[in-house]
Amino acid sequence: MDDAPSSIDGQAAVDEEDDKLLTEHHVTLLPPHLLRETPSQRDGIAREEEDKHRRWACGLAQEAGILLKLPQQVMCTAQNLLHRFYYRKSLKSYDAFVAAMGCLFLASKVEEKPKRLREVLFAFHYVYKVRTNSTEKMELGGAMYAGWKESLVMVERTILKELGFSFYVIEHAHRFILFYVKLLDGDAELAQEAWAYCNDSLRTDLQLRSKAEVIACAAVKLAAAKLRRTLPSLEKDGVDWWAAFGVDGGELDRAAAEITELYAASPLVWLPSLAPAPRLTDPAFAAAVLARQEAREAEKKAAQEALDRARAEAAAAPPPAPAAAAADERRARSRSRSRSRDRGRRRRDRSRSRDRHRSRRDRRDRSRSRDRTRGRRR
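That's the Cyclin-like domain-containing protein sequence above. Prediction below.
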């Protein structure tokens, strides 16, 4: 009994800390203490390895989104959700391939461009086949389809829970690109190149550490440098053009340097999962999921058969004995008489009430008439 208050207090402290973390994720930029160390790093994964899996998962979401003919905004939101998710959970707990599927599926709903679950599954399966040179086929209702479907549904629920069902804090740098290029008297080629740099920046967690305006200015700067364009100043006194947009030069340089580092890394085709077995691509995993589904279907079928047998037995049961039928009839007549008496009693009560009310009204009228007569006589 003495240990109960301490355990309750400990659970309350854990719940309070979890609520605090959820509140901190309801902002566009994450606070520094969350960015300092990720759950994957606490599980012993090096920062370089984690960044590699993040970039790879973002590439999967981008490629599958293109196959599904989704607008770029959906892919941007999916990659933002993925980076936020891995600041709540470790790569050792959730496979990056499955998380990419869940984030893209959820982002299509958030941006009101929903896709059916089977479409997302077949798109990611195509990406998996191309990248691994696999010959496995996914059939609707098959073992692999059942396994992937269950994993996608579960990871989507987890992402929703971990991010607190809040997706209105996401701001993309793409919305500033065309505006900035137009103010700088740029052309369509500059805008297209800056847009491409913005797309590539999504593969890093830069969007959780820097404002969208900073990333947009960094993309425009890199695009102008690649195309060898000279960007004009927006102020007559020679103020740098990015300062006119409220962007600090140091933040701009750091963002541009981080985007540039992406191109020094080697392309990532396929990475083994860091999550424990069973894994999504293992045949044993798909077979286990299909076996569970078949067991659930067998239980439903057995319950339906038992219900049908009970109904058939009730229909085939012999009719009740005459004495029992007569007793039932007497009870029914008694209930009917009782209801009739109750209805008559209520009618009489209403009638008496109306009579009493009418009598009081008549007496009141006669009294008023007498008073008026006496007044005239006087």
